[in-house]
């Protein structure tokens, strides 16, 4: 799509996989925990969980564990403990160009927000430990809305908070679930996938609201500098 970037007032970021490289911790956690149940998880299934709601992902884990809901919840609690232990040691890597892009956007007077599927406790830990929290004017977490990504609700809440239209904002996302949510909200979106989409996965994406696919946050910053 062609987008007049001069009218942008707000930039909305996803968190996990977009600003911080936490997806590898989540995935290692699931692999480690599921060994306790003599179970394994495929990379394809891990990718389906990327950016998904807790309910959606719990259902996938439940299927792996023979449909046992209590075991799935127990496994999630163990995975959460694994994640908390890792990040408490300060082991959160930022995505390439994260600080540089945030600083560029701030200097240019744009409002910045995070719309993440992570619940409040984990999301706040990630933002604080990574040093990202001070950059953001508003953060909304996955457990603060009824319908998570790929539904558009979380992004619509951010627009409502800032009282801007969808055409006065852009989203930066790394997951298919996030991309579906932002384009369903009719917000122009920069897509920075860690894993390229497979054939057919773009079929349900409204490409009218896809600005483009970019290799990094640095590439988005370089693009914006040519447009403002």
Helix content: 40-55%
CATH class of the largest domain: Alpha Beta
Annotation, overall tally of beta strands: 6
Looking at CATH, the homologous superfamily of the largest domain is HAD superfamily/HAD-like
Classify the fold: give the CATH topology of the largest domain.
Rossmann fold
Distance between the ends: 17 Å
Shape: globular
Oligomer: single chain
- Strand fraction equals 5-15%
Topology, element by element:
Layout: E1 10-13, H1 23-35, H2 43-49, H3 54-64, H4 69-88, H5 98-107, E2 111-115, H6 120-130, E3 138-140, H7 153-162, E4 169-173, H8 176-184, E5 189-191, E6 210-213, H9 217-225
Parallel strand pairs: 1-2, 1-4, 2-3, 4-5, 5-6
Helix pairs in contact: 1-4, 3-4, 5-9
Description:
With 228 residues, the protein is of the alpha/beta class. The protein folds into two domains: 5-21 and 92-225, HAD superfamily/HAD-like (Rossmann fold); 23-88, DNA polymerase, domain 1 (Orthogonal Bundle). It is built from nine helices and six strands. It has helices at 23-35, 43-49, 54-64, 69-88, 98-107, 120-130, 153-162, 176-184, 217-225; strands at 10-13, 111-115, 138-140, 169-173, 189-191, 210-213. It has a six-stranded parallel sheet with strand order 3-2-1-4-5-6, sandwiched between helices. Strand 2, helix 6 (120-130) and strand 3 (138-140) form a beta-alpha-beta unit. Helix 1 packs across helix 4 and helix 3 (54-64) crosses helix 4. The longest helix has 20 residues, at 69-88. The radius of gyration is 17 Å and the shape is globular. The two termini are 17 Å apart.
